[in-house]
Automatic annotation (TrEMBL):
Keywords: DNA-binding, Transcription, Transcription regulation. Residues 1-58 form the HTH lysR-type domain. It comes from Desmospora activa DSM 45169. GO terms for molecular function: DNA-binding transcription factor activity; transcription cis-regulatory region binding. PANTHER family: HTH LYSR-TYPE DOMAIN-CONTAINING PROTEIN (PTHR30126:SF78), HTH-TYPE TRANSCRIPTIONAL REGULATOR (PTHR30126). InterPro entries: LysR_HTH_N, LysR_subst-bd, WH-like_DNA-bd_sf, WH_DNA-bd_sf. Belongs to the LysR transcriptional regulatory family. This is DNA-binding transcriptional LysR family regulator. The lineage of its organism: Bacteria, Bacillati, Bacillota, Bacilli, Bacillales. Pfam families: HTH_1, LysR_substrate. Gene3D superfamilies: 3.40.190.290, Winged helix-like DNA-binding domain superfamily/Winged helix DNA-binding domain. PROSITE patterns: HTH_LYSR.
Length: 288
């Protein structure tokens, strides 16, 4: 087996379709089928067969896929290590970033980083913070940027803190909230827990949710049009927007803050591009 065989196995396992796999790998279907048969002959097993739901792998085939995934990861890591052994900062930097941070903060940061390090190729994957954690854990990315409190066993650096606000188009009193129309949105469990805890600290009755939307951006637009109030993090707002904002305060008088973290593995700092990005982000945090 070689790296092309590993890619055939992992891609076919993901796609569950011979045609799509051949297209993704830019090879012909007969060539792909031939390599599968050669691998089956080499190990004297059946790797996969065509079922009602597409290509289905046998237990032996799934074991080979796991091996192929591990070998491709090792190959990628070795290449990146070799590319970055020079003192010059270059190579590939893989980032996993919370979707909200990616939209509101990341573009300007990457622009400045690339101005300093033009020879670094940056690959970005976005998603929920839980998904980003998994990306870093599985080494699909080098560095993760997550929002909220999560347990991470390796390196973790606080990038920013922001307040949470009760936001409305017109002025609203906090005691009116249980009787006012609230616009709710899908979010991660850490933010939902913070907001629910704050609510239970201050009110005996539940909020009156009149709208449920999928994204915070949609929620904000509803608020801007006067359709209700929402509880949103400060990353969404700037001074130019005509909105009434009341910061969330805990019962003990402290401000309730949403934290954004950078997470990575300490041993990954051997790669110059990763080391440069970590230092860059820390400098940005510490700059006045």
């Amino acid at each position: 087996m070689n790296d092309q065989d590993w890619r055939i196995l992992t891609t076919l396992y993901k796609e569950k379709n011979i045609t799509k796999t051949a297209e993704k790998l830019c090879i012909s279907q007969p060539a792909l089928t031939y390599r599968l048969r050669q691998m089956e002959n080499e190990f004297n097993i059946t790797i996969a067969y065509r079922g009602r739901r597409g290509v289905e792998f046998t237990a032996e085939g799934e074991y080979l896929v796991k091996y192929a995934q591990e070998m491709l990861l090792q190959l990628r890591n070795t290449k990146e290590q070799m590319w970055n052994m020079d003192t010059k900062v270059q190579g590939i930097l893989r980032l996993g970033v919370s979707s909200i941070f990616a939209r509101y903060k990341l573009p300007l940061l990457l622009k400045h980083f690339r101005q300093q390090y033009p020879d670094v190729e940056i690959k970005v994957s976005t998603g929920w913070s839980e998904e980003v954690m998994t990306m870093v854990y599985k080494q699909d990315v080098h560095i993760g940027i997550i929002r909220g409190e999560y347990k991470w066993p390796d390196q973790k650096y606080l990038l920013m803190e922001e307040p949470l606000y009760v936001v409305s188009k017109e002025a609203i009193e906090l005691e009116e909230l249980p009787r006012s129309s609230r616009i709710n949105y899908q979010t991660d469990s850490t933010l939902r827990t913070i907001i629910d805890h704050w609510w239970m600290e201050h009110y005996l009755q539940p909020s009156s949710i009149t709208m449920e939307v999928d994204k915070m951006e949609t929620c904000k637009e509803m608020v801007l049009h006067g359709l209700g109030y929402a509880i949103l993090p400060g990353i969404f707002f700037d001074d130019s927007e005509e909105l009434c904002k009341i910061p969330l305060i805990a019962k003990d008088g402290g401000a309730i803050l949403r934290k954004t973290w950078m997470i990575y593995r300490k041993d990954s700092l051997k790669i110059s591009a990763i080391r440069a990005f970590v230092a860059f982000m820390k400098e940005k945090k510490e700059a006045p």
